[in-house]
Amino acid sequence: MIELRTPAEIEAMRPAGRFVAETLQTLSEETKVGMNLLEIDRRAHAMIRAAGAESCYLDYAPSFGSGPFGHVICTSVNDAVLHGRPYDYTLRDGDLVTLDFAVSINGWVADSAVSFVVGTPRDEDLALIDTTERALEAAITAAQTGSKVGDISAAIAAVARGDGLSINTDFGGHGVGRTMHGDPHIPNDGRAGRGFPLKPGLVVAIEPWFLQTTDKLVTDERDGWTLRSADGSRGAHSEHTIAITEDGPIVLTAR
Ligand code: MF3
Ligand code: CO
User: Fold this and answer.
1) pLDDT by residue (tens digit) across 189-238?
2) Which residues contact 169 (CB under 8 A, 6 or more apart)?
3) Fewest CB atoms within 10 A around its CB: which of 10, 107, 127, 251?
4) Atom from ligand 1 closest to the CA of residue 56
């Protein structure tokens, strides 16, 4: 079911958006070569407690994961791109890191992700991150009242294909509200002019993610959660929660 939020409800979603933005900003600045993924999770958990926020991940047990996630942030490194479950791994020079983070505050959720490199970056990793960020920007620009979900999808796909990447549509954007994952689904590929009409009050997470040389994912057998590229190539992911209004999109998780 698709729910539309009143302007007052969108205002009430701002604290969650702001907290998710600030936390990702702080954690991406603090994350350096030599830092352990479990340390990032502990830092995020401490910030959640201090803010009186509630994690959307800790007890999350959807069909696409194995049991409760058990951590408050996704840390996906190199060939891991989505749902990276933090584990005892110390970051090395040149690692490509994605942090994906969602909480609720006063019952309203915000969800956002950012990718970056620690230490000396490889050009192709910076290019991949840049593609996901430009795809997200194009998608937000397309998220106008009167357009359709397919316009968002097509905007993402055009940027990816323009940069020679293939697209996996198994995981994509989603409605955001009292819970993290609601309707509509927003695939990272689709046809302009098709799909659900974008109306004022629709709040969605848009999340382009791409892999360097494949569109196939495999689930990490060790944790039953982390999604890695099938060929070992690296992935990047960029996500914001936005509200569609008469006056254009509001990026609730803008950093
Ligand atoms: N925040 C992710 C998304 O962008 C979902 C992560 S689910 C988790 O939709 F359980 F892995 F944390
Ligand atoms: Co999301």
Assistant:
1) 999 999 999 999 999 999 999 999 999 999 999 999 999 999 999 999 99
2) 187, 188, 189
3) 107
4) 12
